[in-house]
Specification:
This protein is of the alpha+beta class. Helix content is 59%, strand content 16%. It has eleven helices and eight strands. α2 runs parallel beside α5 and α8 crosses α11.
Length: 296
C-alpha cells in the first residue's frame, strides 16, 4: 500500500463524535468529489463519485451516521482497466445541512481538511521526497482550503495544473503538522521515523564528504610541498637551507603520506603542527623565488 493509501485507510476509520464535525468532513468530500442537485419534486439530492473504495466507504458511513435517510451505492467495473468506480446517492432535505455547513470551529476545520484529503489528496513516499497535495477543481475552493490549512500556522501554496488547482506542502515538518491536524497519528509516527533515518543518513554523508574533502586537501598540499622541495633540491640543493628547513624537507621526502603532526614527531628535534606548517611555507616561498629568478 502506498503512503497515501495508508493515510486514507487510517482516516477512513476516524469518525468525529460531534455532528457539526461530521457535517464539515462530509462537506469537503462533496465539494471535492460530488455535487448537489434537486429532484423533480424539489428534493435535495447528493451524489459523490469516486474510484477509491476507501473514499466510498467513508462517505457512505458518514451519511449513515449523520442522517436517518436512505443511501445507496452503485458500483461500476471497468473490465479494461480492471478497476471499479463508485457512485453514492442520497436524497432528503436534511442534506442541506451538508450543503450549507459552516466551518468555523477548529475541530470542524480539522474535519474539513481530513475530508478534502480523503477525497482528493495524495502524498509522496517520504523516503523519496516530501510532497503533500489536495487537488481542487476551482481556484475559489483552493483558496478556501489553503486559508483553512494556514489557520494552523502552515504555509500551504497553490499551483495550477491541467485546469485544476493544487494546494500543496513540501516541507517535511509542515507535512508532519498537517497529519497531526487531520489526526492521522499512525502515519505521522511513520513519517517521523522516515525523517529521523533520512537525517541520520544525511548527517553521516556530510561527515564522510567533509572528511573526504579534508583528505583530498591534505593530499594536494603534500603533493605541492614535495614538488617544491624537489625543485629546491634539484636547483640549489639542501646545503644552503637552515637546519630546521633541511630537516623538514628531508623528512617530507622520506614520508610523503605523513600528516603535519606525524612529520613534527619524526624530526630530529620534534616540533608541533604549527611549527611544521611554518617551515613548509618557508620552503614553498623559497621554491617560488627560485622559479621566478629562473624565469627572469
Amino acid at each position: 500500500m502506498s503512503f497515501s493509501g495508508m493515510i486514507k485507510e487510517e482516516l477512513s476509520g476516524h469518525y468525529a463524535k460531534a455532528r457539526h464535525c461530521r457535517l464539515a468532513e462530509m462537506a469537503a468530500i462533496v465539494r471535492m468529489s460530488g455535487e448537489f442537485s434537486e429532484s423533480r419534486k424539489g428534493v435535495c439530492v447528493l451524489k459523490v463519485h469516486t474510484e477509491n473504495f476507501t473514499v466510498a466507504r467513508k462517505c457512505f458511513t458518514l451519511l449513515k451516521k449523520t442522517f436517518n435517510i436512505d443511501t445507496c451505492i452503485a458500483i461500476r467495473r471497468n473490465m479494461t482497466k480492471g478497476s471499479c468506480s463508485y457512485d453514492i446517492y442520497a436524497r432528503g432535505e436534511e442534506l442541506l445541512a451538508v450543503k450549507n455547513a459552516m466551518v468555523q470551529a477548529v475541530c470542524c476545520k480539522r474535519a474539513y481538511i481530513r475530508g478534502a484529503f480523503i477525497a482528493a489528496g495524495s502524498m509522496s513516499d517520504p523516503s523519496k521526497s516530501y510532497h503533500f497535495e489536495i487537488v481542487c477543481s476551482t481556484s475559489e475552493e483552493a483558496e478556501y482550503l489553503r486559508s483553512m490549512m494556514n489557520a494552523f500556522d502552515l504555509e500551504a501554496k497553490i499551483v495550477e495544473r491541467k485546469r485544476t488547482y493544487v494546494v500543496y506542502l513540501k516541507e517535511g515538518s509542515q507535512i508532519v503538522d498537517i497529519l497531526n491536524v487531520m489526526e492521522a497519528h499512525v502515519a505521522l509516527l511513520e513519517l517521523e521515523n522516515v525523517r529521523i533515518m533520512k537525517e541520520m543518513r544525511n548527517s553521516v554523508n556530510r561527515k564522510v564528504n567533509c572528511e573526504t574533502a579534508n583528505i583530498n586537501k591534505t593530499v594536494s598540499a603534500a603533493v605541492r610541498q614535495i614538488e617544491d622541495i624537489k625543485y629546491i633540491r634539484d636547483t640549489t640543493g639542501f646545503d644552503r637551507l637552515p637546519e630546521g628547513l633541511r630537516d623538514v624537507a628531508l623528512t617530507r621526502l622520506a614520508y610523503p603520506d605523513a600528516t603535519l603532526k606525524e612529520l613534527g614527531e619524526l624530526l630530529e628535534t620534534p616540533v608541533g603542527k604549527s611549527g611544521v606548517n611554518h617551515r613548509l611555507r618557508r620552503l614553498s616561498e623559497i621554491a617560488v623565488k627560485l622559479r621566478d629568478s629562473k624565469e627572469e
